[in-house]
Amino acid sequence: MTTQTRIITGASRGFGRALAESALEAGDNVVAAVRRPDSVADLRATHPDTCLITKFDARAVAAASDLVQETLDRFGQLDVLVNNAGRAVVGAVEEVGDAQLRCRQEGDPARAAEIIVSLVHGEEVPLRLPLGREAVERISGVYRRGLEDVERWAETARSTTSRSSKPGSTRCPSGSTC
């Protein structure tokens, strides 16, 4: 297994903390980028050679290049960036209710971190991995609606094909076969 180096913002608690712990246990290098370095001092004590703790406020965009340079200076590589600091809810004010604004992420952050670390070390890394029942249902719903749109407009889209031409028999303006 190849050792990877990750910067994890928001590594002091919740999902960021669980991901840092899981990555360190897997033998990876972790740069815990946090506002309060003392909040993760135990990680450095447990993993002194593979854990770098750096004070970092994700709102200070100009400091990001220094964070990357510090990572490269210490570990010589950077493979994964987990931008976990903070939390955002995106949506129109009339669509986002108080409950959604106040809710916390469902599920077990430690289990999610274990899954992510194992996938990153695997042969096939997913571009997007929804974690938790709600995320899977939300993304599945978007996919189903998209598929329904394709099916609803398929006949109209197909009707734009010339009935007299067969695929490959029409010349495109560039001279190639369409």
TrEMBL record:
Gene3D superfamilies assigned to the protein according to its UniProt record, in alphabetical order: NAD(P)-binding Rossmann-like Domain
The keyword Mitochondrion belongs to this UniProt entry's keyword annotation: no
InterPro entries assigned to the protein according to its UniProt record, in alphabetical order: NAD(P)-bd_dom_sf (IPR036291), SDR_fam (IPR002347), SDR_oxidoreductase (IPR051911)
Biased composition (Polar residues): 166-178
Keywords (A to Z) from UniProt: Oxidoreductase
Leader sequence segment: none
Region (Disordered) location: 155-178
Pfam families assigned: adh_short (PF00106)
Chaperone found in the keyword field: no
Record-stated family: Belongs to the short-chain dehydrogenases/reductases (SDR) family.
Annotated PANTHER family: SHORT CHAIN DEHYDROGENASE (PTHR43976), SHORT-CHAIN DEHYDROGENASE_REDUCTASE FAMILY PROTEIN (PTHR43976:SF16)
Entry protein name: SDR family NAD(P)-dependent oxidoreductase
Lineage: Bacteria, Bacillati, Actinomycetota, Actinomycetes, Streptosporangiales
